[in-house]
Amino acid sequence: MSYQLQGSLFDADGPEAGPALGPLGGIGRTVLGHGAWIDVLPGWLRGADALFERLVDGVPWRAERREMYERVVDVPRLLAFYREGEALPDPVLAEARDALGAHYRAELGEPFATAGLCLYRDGRDSVAWHGDRIGRGDREDTMVAILSVGQARPLLLRPLAGGGPTVRRSLGHGDLLVMGGSCQRTWEHAVPKSAGAVGPRISIQFRPGGVR
Ligand SMILES: O=C(O)CCC(=O)C(=O)O
Ligand SMILES: [Fe+2]
Question: Which among 66, 70, 86, 157 counts the fewest CB atoms within 10 Å?
Fold first, then answer.
């Protein structure tokens, strides 16, 4: 596929360096309110450009179409989903899932089990405001951990009710963001379209079983 990154401007290790995870100890928490929080660790994965290139070429990306307002429209991003127990497309993703599971074991009480992948080809690709509420996230506190590779795009978060400022975090190049507590129920998140020239980004979302 030809969604190329423009060089490896942000990858200090150079494009040849294999991907490697750093420690999770330095992750920082922001309490959002209404029982929700986010943890953010910029640059958790070194060599993220190399992983981006492997995933662009190695993942069986699907274009989906969905019914919306009685019309069938293209979902504006490419998707892949790995169920619990299914082999992930790169060994470093299994490492990431397991490291997250170990780090959050006491607080989450269960492992991260599935991996959803999104490829945002350019600024026209996006995800609209939503919570991950198809599964248990609708009723229970849970966590969704997002590892981002490729060009950075802003992830926005806003409270579902009651108003308040929108929270914005730029995610790409190996950054980690974990949504926790009631975040899927009491907050929404989105990756808005961008009018400017934006390179491709891949988001990898790790979730416990039964959370979508
Ligand atoms: O691109 C992202 O990091 C967010 C993706 C997302 O919210 C989802 O797939 O549920
Ligand atoms: Fe989401």
Answer: 70
> Going by CA atoms, what residue is nearest to atom 2 of ligand 1?
203
- Alpha-carbon span 199 to 6, nearest angstrom: 7
**3 state SS of 50:** helix
Ligand of minimum distance to the alpha carbon of 145: 1
Centre of ligand 1 to C-alpha 58, Å, is 20
Residues 116 and 55: beta-carbon distance below 8 Å: no
Mean pLDDT by 10 residues, the chain (212 residues): 64 67 96 97 97 97 90 94 98 98 98 98 96 94 98 97 94 98 98 95 97 93
Q: Is the ipTM of this complex over 0.90?
A: yes
Residue 161 sits at φ, ψ, to 5 deg, of: -135, 155
The set of protein residues with a Cβ atom below 6 angstroms from ligand 1 is 116, 118, 127, 132, 146, 155, 189, 191, 203, 205
Q: Is 95 left (phi over 0), alpha (psi -120 to 50) or beta?
A: alpha
Q: Please, what are the domains in the chain?
A: 30-207 (2.60.120.590)
Residue 128 identity (one-letter amino acid): A
